[in-house]
Amino acid sequence: MKKLVHKHVLIKASVKNPPKEEAVLNTWFKELVEEIKMNVCIEPRSRYVNAVGNRGITGIVGIETSHCSMHVWDEMDPGIIQMDVYSCAEYDPETVLKKLNEFTLVEYEIMFIDREDGFKVLRHEKVKV
Predict the structure, then answer these.
(1) Distance CA 8, CA 26 (A)
(2) What is the rounded CA–CA span in Å between residue 12 and residue 56?
């Protein structure tokens, strides 16, 4: 039996090419789950929100060890993405950043937290690409 861990990455990113279509984000989520070596247990679900000031796509995918979620604001340039990946299995946050760069990162802030015994910040940085 695998040892359970509790790792959570939070990312706020500015991107040049934010996803705007549900099918695009759903496919991206499936690929991300595969790249972090997890398994989908709840298929990706995304919806475009067409509310002024909150326009963009929001989505989530359930993984056997928890979830990945994202909201995108695409009204501004660059677009803004807020996302998180929480898992009870080990994964590399660099893999998440590499996948996120498919939307052409301009800058990002990342916080990687070990939630095993309280909240221990393993990494926190803001990067201009």
Answers:
(1) 21
(2) 15
Q: Which of 121, 115, 129, 104 shows the shortest CA–CA distance to 16?
A: 104
Neighbour count for residue 22 (Cβ, 10 Å): 16
Residue 32 tokens read as 């991300």
pTM value? 0.94
H or E stretch covering 19: none
Amino acid at 21: E
Q: Is 99 helix (H, G, I), strand (E, B) or coil?
A: helix
As given in the structure block, the two tokens for residue 35 are: 């790249």
Distance of alpha carbon 92 from the chain centroid? 12
Question: By C-alpha distance, which of 81, 113, 121 is closest to 97?
Answer: 81
- Which of 95, 93, 104 has its CA nearest to residue 13? 104
pLDDT band at 73 (very low <50, low <70, confident <90, very high): very high
The whole-angstrom separation of Cα 97 and Cα 33 is 13
Question: Which class for 87: exposed (0-12), middle (13-18), buried (19 or more C-beta within 10 A)?
Answer: buried
State the chain's maximal CA–CA distance in angstroms: 48
